[in-house]
Design goal:
Distance between the termini: 75 Å
Largest sheet: 10 strands, antiparallel
CATH architecture of one domain: Distorted Sandwich
Structural class: alpha+beta
Helix content: 10-25%
Oligomer: single chain
Shape: elongated
Length: about 400
């Protein structure tokens, strides 16, 4: 058993009592013997002996010169030995003992921990004791990181409140385009995403294609820009490599496939006369709402979604006149469109309420409605598009 510090390092009271002081003899031999003895080290005694030597040697210059050098050496040796024998306490420094493993009484608890997967015992002690209380020691804790296994089956996901195509894709480690290419309704109108909707989720990036009349394996591969072997050798397609037969209506996963992007064409809603004195845009856009961009622009989602709260103000991005104000049947819910008279139009969707009518002039920064979650939306946000002639532009590259 390890001894307590008090036993291992005795206190100064247990030292031997130094001998009584005596008057140095004429030769100084006995005084020197006491001086170089480190145990009864006494600074007062050393001063007395030194004074005695100086008095005797001062009477003779020759004697002083002979003994002074020897005296200095002796003093240094005595000082070194004396200091070395002293026990110095600096803030009561204590020695730290190592941690030791506890012996457990319970044989079941004492059994080593076992890795659940490999069955191998873990080497980390199950319990550590600290013999010096209130001392914290950091220690590495072994932790096995099991990599997520690749999904091997096509799955179904139910859309939840607050979901976006970007967010759903991130949950499964896929590109947002893959989510859209696996669900034809979303590909046609990304804003058809709604709570409770069932989505097809592929195990890998690519295209989920339903075989049509006249389709061939080579033709499908050419359409989606992959090698036919990618489709043929993908296990979920269950094709016979020696006799690959595909039939109309059959679904095939095209790993790594992609669809060509066809820009959405903007249809002019307003067919009446341009209002007299219609405002014209400045060409410089302002943010239509305050909030968080929780879904960005990509080819199949030609807008940015700004999330906030129901009733948050929605402002005109630039001056112009209203050409659409009302309900949309393609997922936009309550929405409006402003024509800025310079080739630009802006669209504001999923509104909770609309403050303007078709034909009204609006100024940049004027409130035109309130943010909502009408139509196909999974939470309150503003779907904001900027259109230039017949092309939808990325608002992030245009807004300040």
């Amino acid at each position: 058993m390890q001894q307590p510090l008090s036993k291992k390092y005795p206190k100064s009271s247990s030292r031997a009592t130094p001998p009584a002081q005596t008057v140095p003899d004429a030769s100084g031999v006995s005084s020197l013997a006491g001086l170089v003895n480190p145990h009864p080290f006494n600074l007062t005694r050393m001063v007395e002996i030194t004074s005695y030597w100086l008095k005797n040697s001062a009477s003779s210059e020759a004697l002083f010169s002979r003994t002074s050098a020897h005296l200095i050496v002796i003093l240094l040796v005595a000082l070194t030995l004396g200091v070395g024998s002293m026990q110095i306490q600096l803030g009561r420094i204590s020695a730290l003992r190592p941690f030791q493993q506890t012996t457990l009484i319970d044989p079941v608890a004492a059994a080593p921990s076992v890795d659940e997967e490999t069955g191998a015992p873990l080497t980390l002690p199950s319990q550590l004791n600290d013999f010096l209380d209130d001392v914290l020691v950091s220690a590495a804790v072994p932790h096995t990181i099991v990599p997520e296994r690749a999904r091997e089956q096509i799955s179904t996901y139910e859309v939840q409140s607050g979901d976006t195509i970007y967010g759903i894709a991130g949950k499964f480690g896929l590109d947002p385009e893959t989510i859209m290419w696996s669900n034809p309704d979303l590909e046609k109108a990304p804003d058809l995403l709604s709570i409770g909707q069932q989505l097809t989720i592929l195990p890998t990036n690519g295209v989920y294609h339903q075989v049509g009349e006249g389709d061939t394996l080579q033709g499908i591969a050419d359409t989606f820009k992959v090698d036919p072997s990618a489709i043929l050798n993908y296990s979920l397609n269950e094709l016979d490599p020696d006799n690959p037969v595909i039939t109309p209506g059959q679904w095939l996963v095209v790993p790594g496939g992609s669809k060509p992007f066809i820009p959405r064409t903007v249809v002019a809603y307003y067919t009446g006369e341009i209002p007299e004195g219609a405002s014209e845009g400045t060409g410089t856009f302002a943010w239509p709402a305050s909030g968080t961009i929780y879904q960005g622009f990509f080819p199949w989602h030609p807008a940015i979604d700004i999330a906030a709260y129901i009733g948050a103000p929605v402002l005109a991005g630039d001056s112009g006149y209203v050409i659409v104000a009302g309900w949309s049947d393609v997922g936009y819910g309550y929405h409006l469109v402003i024509d800025h008279g310079n080739g630009y139009q802006t669209l504001y969707a999923h509104l909770n309420s609309i403050y303007v009518n078709v034909g009204d002039n609006v100024a940049q920064g004027q409130q035109i409605g309130e943010m909502g979650n009408t139509g196909n939306a999974t939470g309150p946000h503003l779907h904001f598009e900027i259109r230039q002639n017949t092309v939808v532009r990325n608002p992030i590259g245009i807004l300040p």
